[in-house]
Amino acid sequence: MNYKRSLTVIITIFAVVAVVVAGAVWYFVAKPTKVLVTITSQPHTVEITINGESFGARKSGKTFPVETKEDSLSITASADGFADDTIVEPINGKQVGSFIGLVPQTDEAEKTLREEGDLDQQEDATEKYLRESEKLRADWPILDELPRETMTYRAYQGESEDGDHDFGIHLFLYPDNADQGREDFNRWLKSINEDPHDYEIVEEMDNGPKKAVVPPLPTRDEVEALSRDDITDPKTIKSDNLESDAAALQFASATTTWHASKDTPHSGFNRTHQLMSKSLADSITEPERPTYTPKWFEAADNDAESYSWPIDIYEGTGSNSFEVEVCWAWVSETHEPVIEGPRKYSITMGDDDGRPVVTGYEFEDPSNFVASDTDQCLSND
Predict the structure, then answer these.
(1) Cα–Cα distance between 160 and 379 in angstroms, integer?
(2) Helix/strand/coil for 164
(3) What does the alpha-carbon distance between residue 233 and residue 191 come to, in Å, rounded to a whole number?
């Protein structure tokens, strides 16, 4: 009796194992295989069908996943004006690549192939240019700084004209202040530790419409000759009849005009609401803990006021926005002027019934813990 029962148990176990094995075999046999398919085609866009399943329009060289239980892929490509073509590709791994060139049947299809051939040549030329450009930038870091556009000059990378250089820096100047533009350009090169003699500078005159021009930088003698009478009350400044860039310059100068013993660093914004949009003016609030510089405290002790001037302006990354750099000198009746800055503004301009207004701004002052280079605030003359 026990023998029969044991035999029954053994038979049952074998039956269960057989069912499990059969199920596993069925699962792995029936489970689809996932492969990545890349089809290079002419024309560049074709309708793709694989093993009877449509995969829609596919661009040449693009990779897409396909699941199949077959050991090969029957790939059919079709396009308007071309004869269909089918290629069978075996599946030997996780990726399948295939080239299909359709035969044109109409004049329009032949035209498509010719145009795409021209496009391929253009793409090859573009790739070559990008490779050469990447190498050029590695050899000449200044190219990462170009193009550069300011109110007195514009500098771009261009072709060499003498044939002895890899490239030329094309410097566009305005006829009525070419000397100032050239000086500003050379000063910028010096600020990034570049020597103009290392480059081929191709000067060209720009006779088109001009933007606001930064006035010539003051000399040290001119700054030392300043008095309180030279300082304009910011409340009296208007932006009527100005272009947006000129209004941005005006805002930068007006908001850095202070009376150190009476003001806070934020007072310049409180006195220039007339240069702002209403929403921006309404949002101006005095910080609870204003940040003062050591030179501000010195100016307050001397009852000094600030005289401000822009040193550079160029277009920002946003629409109708400008990057402005501005310096100022603390002027008192008893001490020599003390220069401070530059402050770097990002200013966004808008329009209020034909009048340019500031709709947003950000600024960055030199660190109190690092000596600032105020030499760039002055002319070298």
Answers:
(1) 31
(2) coil
(3) 33
Angstrom CA distances, 244 to 271, 321, 359, stand at 20, 9, 11
Lowest mean pLDDT among 212-216, 301-305, 370-374: 370-374
Distance, CA of 344 to CA of 377 (rounded, Å): 12
Determine the Cα–Cα distance for residues 73 and 91; give it in Å rounded to an integer: 7
pLDDT digits (tens, 9 = 90+) for 170-201: 998 888 778 888 988 998 898 889 999 999 99
Per the CATH hierarchy, to which homologous superfamily does domain 220-377 belong?
VirB8 protein (3.10.450.230)
Its sign, for the CA torsion 259, 263, 268, 272, is: negative
From the CB of residue 96, how many other CB atoms can be counted at a distance below 10 Å?
A: 21
Distance separating alpha carbons of residues 374 and 293, to the nearest angstrom: 15
The continuous run of DSSP H or E covering 138 comes out as helix 107-139
Partners of 158 in the β-ladder: 168
DSSP 8-state assignment for residue 259: B
Instruction: Fold for 33-101, please state it.
Output: Immunoglobulin-like (2.60.40)
As a whole number of angstroms, the distance between CA 280 and CA 362 comes to 12
Q: Is the pLDDT of residue 157 over 80?
A: yes
What mean pLDDT comes out for the span 349-371? 85
**DSSP assigned state of 102:** P
Nearest of 105, 95, 79, 78 to residue 87 by alpha carbon: 78
pTM, whole model, 2 decimals? 0.47
242, two tokens: 């100005």
260 pLDDT more than 50: yes
CA dist., res. 67 & res. 145, Å (int) = 49
CA distances from 77 to 57, 94, 153, 242 (A): 9, 21, 55, 62
Which regions of the chain does DSSP assign to beta strands (E)? 33-42, 45-50, 53-59, 63-68, 72-78, 85-90, 95-101, 148-149, 153-158, 168-173, 201-205, 305-315, 321-331, 338-352, 355-364
